[in-house]
Design goal:
With about 240 residues, this protein is of the alpha/beta class. Helix content is about 35%, strand content about 25%.
């Protein structure tokens, strides 16, 4: 699992904050998200000095990207589904771009989610449908290795579905069917994996007992971190 931490440098009179995600890779990469946040992907053996040097070298470009996204204005809490709005997908902010087209389609690349639509009033419906489709694909992808691991404990869900829920991120029925809230598609992968792991633990212990939390902590030692992140982002 990736380790994510925050750091900052001072460039002139400006402080640049950034998150670091460690991954099995050879080079350092920097991305500026539409909300102005900066994420740096680094090799697992990268030093603090290496990372800060990279950020300093790219500082002018980072500030230019920040100004570019700021030119679209500050996103509002109430979604309008118009170009320039910022939307979450798997924990990252993407800038929405609406494009009139003979098609009705949604695709994303780099920092952009683009909606092609025959009528702009259909943008909200198309994006929500796309999120639901992505939730079904990504939840299945993320859950498979965890389900395979839990099979060594002698348990396996009968079914995994995506279901709209108002007050739960996930639910496990007495007969072993697990449902996941489609809103999880906005959250980072580790948050989604936390919910999946939590519900799979209910196949072993139905209630939130001491043994349940002991198993959850064993299977995902930093689950509380991801639970808190999930609730800060989406609640």
């Amino acid at each position: 699992m990736d380790t994510i931490k925050g750091d900052s440098i001072t460039y002139g009179s400006t402080v640049i904050d950034y998150d670091i995600e460690f991954a099995p890779r050879k080079t350092l990469g920097i991305k500026v998200n539409p909300d102005g946040s900066v994420c740096l992907k680094a090799p697992v053996d990268a030093t603090t000095e290496d990372i800060q040097l990279k950020v300093r070298k790219k500082a002018a470009w980072i500030l230019k990207q920040k100004r570019y996204f700021e030119s679209f204005g500050t996103p509002t809490t109430e979604r309008q589904y118009i170009s320039g709005e910022s939307h979450l997908y798997l924990g990252r902010q993407y800038m929405l771009r609406i494009k009139e087209s003979s098609l009705n389609a949604v695709h994303y690349q780099n920092n952009i989610i683009e909606i092609e639509c025959r009528d702009k009033k259909d943008a909200e419906k198309l994006l929500k449908k796309w999120y639901l489709e992505r939730a079904k694909v990504k939840f299945n992808e993320y859950s498979q290795p965890i389900i395979e691991h839990f099979s060594t404990l002698g348990v396996k869900p009968n079914k995994l579905t995506v279901k709209k829920m108002d007050k739960r991120w996930g639910y496990c029925t007495p007969d072993g069917c697990i449902s996941l809230n489609p809103r999880l598609i906005y959250a980072p992968r580790c948050c989604i994996e936390y919910v999946i792991t939590h519900e799979l633990c209910h196949l072993v212990y139905r209630n939130h007992t001491k043994d349940f939390y002991a198993l959850l902590s064993k299977e995902m030692p930093h689950w509380e971190k991801w639970k808190m992140k999930l609730e800060r982002m989406l609640v």
